[in-house]
Amino acid sequence: MTTVYDILFFFPNYLIIKPGLFCWTVITYPFTVIAQQLGLVAKTKKIKTNKQEQQQQELLEEDPLVTREIPAKQPTPPSDTEDYDEQTEFLKQQTIIANTIKSPTSTSKYLIPPPQRLYPLSRNPERRRRKKILILDLDETLIHSLSKGSPRSFTSSHSKMIEITLNNISSLYYVHKRPYCDYFLQEISKWFELQIFTASVKEYADPIINWLESDLIDSRKQKHKYTSAEDMPFSPKVFTKRYYRNDCTYRPGVGYIKDLSKFIKDEELKNVLILDNSPISYSLHEQNAVTIEGWVNDQTDRDLLNLLPMLHSLSLCIDVRFILGLKSGEKLFEM
């Protein structure tokens, strides 16, 4: 009987039914995939599975004579959130262990907090603010002097003969101003509080400083047509303080060092600059120093003039050390 049945349905089965099912599967395959991605098929299968399990459970409970082992419920898989929390906790523990065992990296010393900003939010030139201090060197920075009769003496329109008395002995010196010295002092006096710090003795320095100061005041009088010092709206003193050789720190074999911390508090050094041609002089305060080449007799020198744009910018910044310290490279970050 089975053989006759197989013979009768062989041709219809393989020529009509199975090809038809195959074509139906091919046609409906894209729709099946879309339904699976949307979760429609999965939900249907889950519903059928849950119903079958529920029916089996009811049959087991209704049969009082048969003792069967009730299948254990499958544990629900952890959600993505729980899995993420476990990974985070694991990483935290590993980090704590690593920090306890390992030593800090050598580069950690460079991770210092930088300044919030280099310049204030308002740079309005008309807004009055406290001036920064600019400390000026004298010899070979602003002037150059030669004793009378020296073979290196030269004539200059910006020169003056000054008598120096030291230990009751008088000497005559020709003092020559560096090119653009007067204009330089006139401009920077608008931006800074000016001070002089020289490694020379007081008896030698004071007459020269007085000469520079008097020439600058005279030029102000002529410019604004003031008849006397009382008529001027500003102080007749150009240099607010003067420091001499006895204010320096002498180191044998090195020379005279200008230690600004003896006169200025550490927290105020951010507002202080020193202009000097000798690196030894500012060796304790390299981050406050503006360097300049020493001058002797070059009448084409323009170094003072070239410094004006930079000095004007420094007069507006918050901390001069964060800008001047850049020339030191990595040394700045090792503070």
UniProtKB/TrEMBL annotation:
Record has Transport as a keyword: yes
Organism in which the protein naturally occurs: Spathaspora passalidarum (strain NRRL Y-27907 / 11-Y1)
Keywords assigned by UniProt, alphabetized: Mitochondrion, Protein transport, Transit peptide, Translocation, Transport
Molecular function in Gene Ontology: phosphoprotein phosphatase activity
Location within or outside the cell: Mitochondrion inner membrane
Main location: mitochondrion
Protein's membrane topology: Single-pass membrane protein
Annotated region described as Disordered, given as residue ranges: 53-84
GO biological process terms on file: lipid droplet formation; negative regulation of phospholipid biosynthetic process; nuclear envelope organization; positive regulation of lipid biosynthetic process; protein transport
Record's function text: Essential component of the TIM23 complex, a complex that mediates the translocation of transit peptide-containing proteins across the mitochondrial inner membrane.
Protein name, as recorded: Mitochondrial import inner membrane translocase subunit TIM50
Similarity-based family: Belongs to the TIM50 family.
FCP1 homology domain residues: 127-314
Cellular compartments per GO CC: endoplasmic reticulum; lipid droplet; Nem1-Spo7 phosphatase complex; TIM23 mitochondrial import inner membrane translocase complex
Superkingdom of the source species: Eukaryota
Complexes and interactors: Component of the TIM23 complex.
